[in-house]
Structure formats: C-alpha cells, structure tokens
Amino acid sequence: MDISVIIPLYNESESLPELHAWICRVMKANRFSYEIIFVNDGSTDNSWEVIQRLSKENENVRGIKFRRNYGKSPALYCGFKAAQGDVVITMDADLQDSPDEIPALYKMITEEGYDLVSGYKQKRYDPLTKTIPTKLFNATARKISGVKNLHDFNCGLKAYKKAVVKNIEVYGEMHRYIPYLAKEAGFKKIGEKVVRHQARKYGSTKFGINRFFNGYLDLITLWFLTNFGKKPMHVFGLLGSFVFFIGFIAFLWLIIEKTINLLSGIYGDLLTSHASFFVALTAMILGTQLFLAGFLGDLISRNSDRRNDYLIEEEINL
Ligand code: UDP
Ligand code: MG
In a 3-state reduction of DSSP, which class is residue 98? Predict the structure, then answer.
C-alpha cells in the first residue's frame, strides 16, 4: 500500500463527505493504493454515521471510534498504530488542509528521502490573535527542539515514512511537537513544504486560547525528558550539590566569624538576627531537597518499564 491518510476528527460531520471525495479524486488521478483512517475522537454529532456510510461506499475507508473525547494526540496515536501504507499522511478534517498536496508530499518522502515533511501554511486564513502567538510559539519550538528549518510545527498536514510513525509515541497534547519527537527518535531528515491553507468552512476550532499555555508547558516537559529523562540525578544532583555547597560555606563563614568574635570578647548580635544566617540555612535546605529530587527521580526511572527502551533500526543475525 502506498499511502495511509489519517484524519483525527471531533465533530466535523459536515466536512467529511467533501473531504473524502476530494481525497479519492487525488488518489485515483495518481493511481495510489491507499487507505483513509478516520479517527473519531468522541464526536457528539453524527460524524460516526457519516464515516460508516463512507466505508460502505469505499472499501479503502477505515474508522476508529473513541468512546469519548481524548484529544488530537491520542487520535493520531491510534491512527499511527493502524496505518499500513509506506507513506503516512495526516490531515485535519476541517478542509483547511488540501488533499491536492498529497502527491508532492509523497514524492518528497519516497524520492527525496525525507523522513518527515511538515506543511507550512505561509499564508494563513486565521485571525491575528492566532497567527501572532503561533509565530512566537514556533520560534521557541525551533530553538528548543533544534529542528531549525521548520516554520510551522503544528501544521495538521504532514507526511511521514512509515518507520517514523511506528517509532514515536504521541500522547497528551504532544501532536504539536511531532517533528521534535521524530528527531529524538533518530529521524533526522525533516523538511517542510509550503502548503495552501483555507479558512475553516464548517464548524469552529476545537482549541481555545489555552493551547498556547499548554503548548509551552509541553515544550518544557519534552525538553526536560529528552535531555534528562533517563538521568534526573545529573540535573538535580548537580544543582542540589551546588546550592548546598554555597549555603554550607556561608554558614561555616558565619560560625567562624562569630567564634572569633566571641574569643576576642566581642559580644555582638545573635547570629539569628542577621539575614545572611537565614539565606545560608535556606540554601542548605533547598540544596538537600534538590538532591533528593534527583535521587528520587533516578529511583523512579530505575524502576520504570521503559528504562531500556531503545529504538533499534536494524539487526544482523539476531
Ligand atoms: N480534533 C480532534 N480532537 C480534539 C480536537 C480537535 O480530533 O479534541 C481534530 C479536529 O476535528 C480537526 C483537527 O483535530 O480535524 C484540528 O483541529 P482544529 O481545526 O479545531 O484546530 P485549528 O485548525 O484551529 O488549529
Ligand atoms: Mg483547523
């Protein structure tokens, strides 16, 4: 099979017939063998009935129905698990992504050797309140992930080599960072293609303003996990030791100074009436806490089922 198209959807029943017809047209014109996997993410409208109907008309249509709304990432995760095509293409259900891009994306993966190609909606039909934060968000994501050539991390339209989707695990709301996940899994050839973007035809967006807050928090998590996930002690331990050391030295200094003063008969204020005493004390306590956090983190990762999860690309005579 050439192509799997994965479409996560939440209450998009009006768009589905049009989207389906459009994809079929493109597939036929290019003689691709294909499947379309609709992942119904707990829609409360009649999206599932529409998918059932489409699957009767077209045997290439497959469907997954969640019992409730879990989010776009879980929907993609299940779609990825089911995909059989050599090239996997994801697109939104709202007709904002154009199926006409599929042939060119397919070529970039199969002929130009890309692992992942992300769409880039250079000209967007979204309100300014969305486009400006999106720019900021992408700049941060580029910086932190080290995937420097992407303008649009969160474009719904993406194409993947099959191996990529079988080796990454999208969860929570991590769909925004799939290129980052792919890079961390060792897929380095990540590219971008300018794609046409259309205004939403039916329904309304499923993500509110908190997408930006969640997006940033997820980015921090990912950064931390990829850098220190398997060795928490290396961050917390070092930081903890450093802070403790500073506190300890300051404490020692205060005590020695006091002792010298006492011996030479100077009875000044009590140590506890100086701010520096409390600063030193706090540093020591904080340092111990940080160190403990690292130690606990290491204990947890030592017991985790995934502590020895490595992605093996090939093996010989095993
Ligand atoms: N979506 C989903 N589950 C959700 C939210 C969204 O499957 O909980 C789907 C939605 O139906 C659409 C795609 O994810 O196909 C992108 O959502 P949307 O168009 O609302 O996002 P935007 O274009 O505003 O970024
Ligand atoms: Mg949309």
Answer: coil
Q: How far is CA 219 from CA 14, 121, 132, 170, 316, in A?
A: 33, 21, 18, 13, 37
How far is CA 280 from each of CA 271, 293, 294, rounded to the nearest angstrom?
11, 20, 21
Q: What's residue 38's pLDDT?
A: 97
Ligand 2 center to 109 CA (angstroms): 24
Local structure of 156: helix, strand or coil: coil
From the list 150, 160, 162, the residue with the least C-alpha distance to 191 is: 150
Q: Whose CA is nearest to atom 4 of ligand 1?
A: 71
Instruction: Determine the length of the chain.
Output: 318
**Is the pLDDT assigned to residue 281 strictly greater than 90?**
yes
Q: Report which bound ligand comes closest to the CA of 156.
A: 1
Tokens 């008969």 appear where? 265
Predicted TM-score (pTM) of the model is 0.88
Q: CA–CA separation, 196 vs 179, rounded Å?
A: 20
Of the candidates 215, 229, 236, the residue with the CA atom closest to the CA atom of residue 304: 229
Query: Which residue's CA is the nearest one to ligand 1's atom 18?
Result: 205
For the CA of 204, the nearest atom of ligand 1: 20
Cβ–Cβ under 8 Å, residues 5 and 34: yes
Question: What is the 42 CA–ligand 1 centroid distance (Å)?
Answer: 12
